[in-house]
């Protein structure tokens, strides 16, 4: 799991302008680290315009991703904690956690998704992650959830 | 008709659909159903012969409207909703 989430890809951000800005901010660490090409951002925005924000899975979680062929170089996750929530559609959920997924194929990120599942089916753990004081703390929570 | 193959779908067939697939597998196990093949894919792969039952989130409802047996989830991470709807569908 440690290969799938590097510490430098966990960030805390005060606020974003709107959902498009949220996608830019949420994907940027993966571009900086060479995990995805810049076009991955455009792909997620295009998919959102086509299908709607289906990746907002519950209150507080946007699992941002496009397909492997849309600019993924190496599999990796990024986690962005927003102090001010953002909405991806006017009547949608308030979102404070952006989990950006770069998947290299359809199966190998299973453990990462298990961690997402462990955290986001439990309101207490969502709150704990959303209010993490430091990025180190958030990283530790996520790795622990992956190893359950 | 007996459900033997379940396909969970999302826009890209990677993230949300994999989560739903894991939740479906867990729920089937809890409910005592065995021998069911659960896969995840993109909605563009969701054609009538691809599976006996399809599971998608509410946002993608319009893309699977032509399929005969579909479970639409209001909240993808709500295990209670999934269990209720899946059990009802499996008993049909």
Automatic annotation (TrEMBL), chain A:
SUPFAM superfamilies found in the cross-reference section: Phoshotransferase/anion transport protein
Descriptive protein name: PTS system ascorbate-specific IIA component
MF annotations from Gene Ontology: kinase activity
Compartments (UniProt record): Cytoplasm
PANTHER family: ASCORBATE-SPECIFIC PTS SYSTEM EIIA COMPONENT, MANNITOL-SPECIFIC CRYPTIC PHOSPHOTRANSFERASE ENZYME IIA COMPONENT
Cellular component GO terms held in the UniProt record: cytoplasm
Gene3D superfamilies from the UniProt entry: Mannitol-specific EII, Chain A
Annotated keywords: Cytoplasm, Kinase, Phosphotransferase system, Transferase, Transport
Originating organism: Breznakia blatticola
Cross-referenced Pfam families: PTS_EIIA_2
Highest taxon above the source species: Bacteria
BP-aspect Gene Ontology terms: phosphoenolpyruvate-dependent sugar phosphotransferase system
Domain PTS EIIA type-2, first and last residues per copy: 3-146
TrEMBL record, chain B:
Alphabetical list of PROSITE patterns matching this protein: PTS_EIIB_TYPE_2
SUPFAM superfamilies hit by this protein: PTS system IIB component-like
Stretches assigned to the PTS EIIB type-2 domain: 4-92
GO MF annotation list: protein-N(PI)-phosphohistidine-sugar phosphotransferase activity
Entries under InterPro entries matching the protein: PTS_EIIB-like_sf, PTS_EIIB_2, PTS_EIIB_2/3
Biological process terms in GO annotation: phosphoenolpyruvate-dependent sugar phosphotransferase system
Keyword set, alphabetical order: Transferase
Protein name: PTS system ascorbate-specific IIB component
Organism: Breznakia blatticola
